[in-house]
Amino acid sequence: MRQSSFFAPTLRDIPADAEIKSHQLLLKAGFIRQNASGVYSYMPLGKKVLQKVEQIVREEMDEVGGQELLMPAIQPAELWQETGRWEIYGPELMRLKDRHERNFALGATHEELITSLVRDEIKTYKRLPVLLYQIQTKYRDEKRPRFGLLRGREFIMKDAYSFHGDHETLDEMYKLMYDTYTKVFTRCGLNFRPVVADSGAIGGKDTHEFMALSEVGEDTIAYSTESDFAANIEMAQVADVYDKSSEEAQPLEKVQTDEAKTIEDVAKKLNVQKDKVIKSLLFSVDEEYVLVLVRGDHEVNDVKVKHFFEATNVELADDETVLEKLQGPVGNIGPIGVENVKIVADYAVKYIVNGVCGANEAGIHYKNVNPERDFVSIEYTDLRFIQEGDPSPDGKGTIVFAEGIEVGQVFKLGTRYSETMGAGFLDENGKNQPMIMGCYGIGVSRTVAAVVEQHHDENGIVWPKELAPYGVHLLVLNPKKEEQHELGESLYKQLKEASYDVLFDDRKERPGVKFADADLFGIPLRVVVGKKADEGIVEVKLRKTGETFEVHVSELTELLKKQWAELS
User: Fold this and answer.
1) DSSP string, 282-331
2) Can you tell me the distance from the alpha carbon of 384 to that of 304, in angstroms, rounded to the nearest whole number?
3) How many CA atoms are closer than 13 Å to the CA of 451, on its beta-carbon side?
4) Cα 39 from Cα 295, distance rounded (Å)
5) CA dist., res. 530 & res. 303, Å (int)
6) Distance CA 119, CA 109 (A)
7) CA triplet 58, 61, 67: central angle to 5 degrees?
8) How far apart are CA 468 and CA 523, in angstroms?
9) Quick count: other Cβ atoms within 10 Å of Cβ 234?
10) Separation between Cα atoms, residue 276 and residue 274, nearest integer Å
């Protein structure tokens, strides 16, 4: 491609709302342009990178027996109503009506639609398992689109779905997809970790996220210093390994705490450490009220509460409800004497000796609280967020945190959709069974942004070779000089014949502009035709390392072949 006619409009100034490097560089280098909040056009350079990611995904999916199809972006509301997600998915689902007032949704995800297709076409165990996938635009009405391609309202995704007649083949497919995603993201040049995760609105139980490590990631990963344990902070288990104080239990006593309601204020008022104070929070769990207890230096993990009760909705009760149910205001509530509300506590609470909790009276707390003596009808489980320095749940090392960008996720859906939508099959005994499903997603456009976050320097993008829009960037510094012009044209033809994908900068621009654009675009290999053109000598520069070589044109293709093979 000749750069003189190439549509790659670069920017001198970075837009003020571009907060992170990937957003800044993809805009500045002309890979993308914003059309509305969270909605982008992919310019020719950006489209080529997208196609590279898509090609890697297709190759790896096809290798394991995936079959590509394409489903519509617009979906009938009736399908979502069959599973109940029309009501519960929330405002992120973009809904619309046609001219006949029929309800539709723009596809945020395709579980309902793929299930409807398979239930109408597969009726026997003999045609299972099957793995189907698509690469398509998805739509979610994000409340606050930000970070460019990392959180948009329109984005490109690969979503795959598998259908099984038994859990054994689902387990095998899940492992296969886990390994396949590892290959995909390795080929994309990402530094990533697979982590245990929450399935969210999609449903299902077993799931892993693939997280690209990045300081701008919106998710926190908890991982072990000495093993391969890694989990999203929402799902990281906390080991029940606490030391109990040997101090003697004291008599329970009510004390005046006045306006002290926060953990910090109560601890200061009573001259105790925060880990002696019991934090009590009232939640609505599928419209049933539950009092959740954690230690004062810990935070309730509502995802764990949701999973413990196998609930759909978990919400913190408002102040009025707290007062009605517990007869005390927020900041003064506790489990002692409570009979009309279910109580659960984090493991750490049962090890507290002579602690503090609310007394369900304004301005009053209990001190010398000993859970094993003073609490009744209470169940203990893991309900808190893990913290840095905690023992790793697998018993190896301690926990440290890192930020990550979710680029993929694999789910075991089970029969969540097949049962509600009637997607069944006849087994070997002629008995109807619900299909068992898996779901596997990759954020294609998000992967592009994650790669830029990890692969850039102060001058621009540094693409891994498998994603680079072009393999070679050929620059003629002064095309007005006949020897440079002729050599540039000759090399352009020679490199294309050698099967290199070449961007040829034949523009009548200053050398400084050409070098700056080349750095910005991040193409791995640069060939510069300059002052030694009359000698048949050019310069080769590696974008990643900055290393340069002077080489005669007769040896150029051999050098490029060698350097390309060594690139990552």
Assistant:
1) EEEETTEEEEEEEETTS-B-HHHHHHHTT-S-EEEPPHHHHHHHHSS-TT
2) 7
3) 28
4) 43
5) 61
6) 18
7) 90
8) 6
9) 20
10) 5
Question: Which residue do the tokens 């044109």 mark?
Answer: 553
pLDDT tens by residue, 234-249: 989 999 999 999 999 9
Whether 203 has a pLDDT exceeding 70, the answer reads no
* Strand pairing category for 436-443 and 399-414: antiparallel
Q: What is the mean pLDDT of residues 84-98?
A: 94
Which residue intervals of 188-301 are DSSP H helices?
263-270
**Which structure tokens are listed for 503?**
């961007």
Mean pLDDT of 216-221: 90
pTM over 0.70: yes
Q: How many CA atoms lie within 13 A of 1 on its CB side?
A: 15
Q: Which domains does the chain have, with CATH numbers?
A: 21-237+401-452 (3.30.930.10), 253-381 (3.90.960.10), 470-566 (3.40.50.800)
Of 195, 107, 185, residue with least CA distance to 153: 107
Q: Helices in 96-140 by DSSP H: which ranges?
A: 111-121
CA dist 449 and 22 (Å) reads 5
Which pLDDT score, from 0 to 100, does residue 58 have? Answer: 98
Average pLDDT score over residue span 124-133: 97
